[in-house]
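Below is one protein, fold included:
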Amino acid sequence: MIHLIEQIINGLQLGFVYALIALGYTMVYGIIRLINFAHGDVFMIGAFVGYFGFAVWGLPWPVAILVSMAVCALVGMAIERLAYRPLRKKGAPNIAALITAIGVSLFIEYFTSLKFVFGPNYRVVERPFADKLFHLGPINISSVQLLVMGVVLVLVAGLQFIVYRTKVGKAMRAVSHDRDAARLMGIDVDRVISYTFAIGSALAAAAGVLFALAYPQISPFMGIMPGLKAFTAAVLGGIGSIPGALLGAVLMGQAETLTAAYITTDFRDAIAFGILILVLMVRPAGLLGKAGPEKV
């Protein structure tokens, strides 16, 4: 029983990291109905910037997380401005934007693999603090686990405040509901979309730094699988739903961790994606998604 509880805590740690990435996917999709496949690579950039912050530049780790979030917010805005906005202005079909997203992802991965950028090799991350164990009776919780879950909860609360208590959040919800009507009401839709990319990218950057602290090894291709799993989590919970992204991410983290602990590590990805298939067979819109008519 104790081992099961500790594995559940491990699953929460992994699921919370997925949640921050999944929120970026679901926010962008909710606004412009685009799957930004470059989002996992923004997560990777965030991990590297955070690593350089506390390991090379000597910044305190909280400051390194903030610097990483700021850098990736600018990266996200640049991706939207240079890659996606021109297609949107020209009324390009969704498949063109999807292919562009894949191209941007590949460009980031191979560009950052160059020796004068991040380099092609794995880097071992030395944590800027000692990982201590805290004992809650017979259950052990590490300081890294507490850090990951605490930071994620703070960021999610901050996101909820932005979305539901600020003018930017109100504009984001208006654009998500009806882009043309929002434009007629005087909302700068392009600016709102840019802000959405910035917020989602900042969350992905924080996830990257936390991932580097929890699983201390990074590389230019590290964003592929976490990005795919976070996208799967967003779809599982209901793409476009913020609570759905959180729920889907936690379920993905639990499924992956418990499978590795009690069955075999070889099947952890297969079972996690298998759960997605089973859920979508019953609820095509996801666990918390709302089915609606598709425009043709």
Summary: The chain has a mean pLDDT of 91. Residues 18-125+143-236 form one domain. The CA atoms of residues 285 and 291 lie 5 Å apart.
